[in-house]
Amino acid sequence: MVNQAYTEFKSLSSSEAEAAFQNDVQSEGYSGFRRLLDGLTEAIKTALDADMAEIESAVSKGRSLFPEPVQFSPSWEYVWAELEATIAAKRHALTAIAPADRTGEWQVIMDNPNAVQEVVCYPGLDFLDAAYLYAYFRPQLEKSEYIRLQKIQTVIQDVGS
């Protein structure tokens, strides 16, 4: 569900409206900027092929209105680059997998075969959720780690008693 802050942000049509929005968010501080980021993140999650250019434009506008997000939180120092990398990875997933092949159950798996650590698996996802997780984690991969976005063709599942 897209929030009100993001809906307002998307509809900004003049430099005066942008300046007013910018002032409102800056006066609200952390929570105001957080609502904008939550809206952008939700838009990335739900974006389909035709939505990607609009999402890229929205992040670009956000970057121009709020070039120093670290003023809201130190953890947001690289938030614009992170969102851009997530969008690029999601665009890659959408381009690589044809719409006709997106039905069914999907999973995302991450592992580093050169390290003693657990394999991370997100099973039982629809394509959009799996594509978003792939896109979110892809830019964060460390050396020797890999990520897989894969469709489940056959499943045997048992539940313990």
Overall description:
The protein is mostly helical. The protein has 2 domains: 4-96; 99-151, no CATH class. It is built from 6 helices and 3 strands. The chain has helices at residues 4-10, 15-28, 30-46, 52-65, 79-96, 127-137; strands spanning 106-111, 120-125, 146-151. Strands 2-1-3 form a 3-stranded antiparallel sheet, with helices on one face. The radius of gyration is 18 Å and the shape is elongated.
Labels describing this entry:
50% helix, 2 domains, 161 residues, mainly alpha, single chain
How do the helices and strands line up, and which of them pair or pack?
Blueprint: H1 4-10, H2 15-28, H3 30-46, H4 52-65, H5 79-96, E1 106-111, E2 120-125, H6 127-137, E3 146-151
Antiparallel strand pairs: 1-2, 1-3
Helix pairs in contact: 1-3, 2-3, 4-5, 5-6
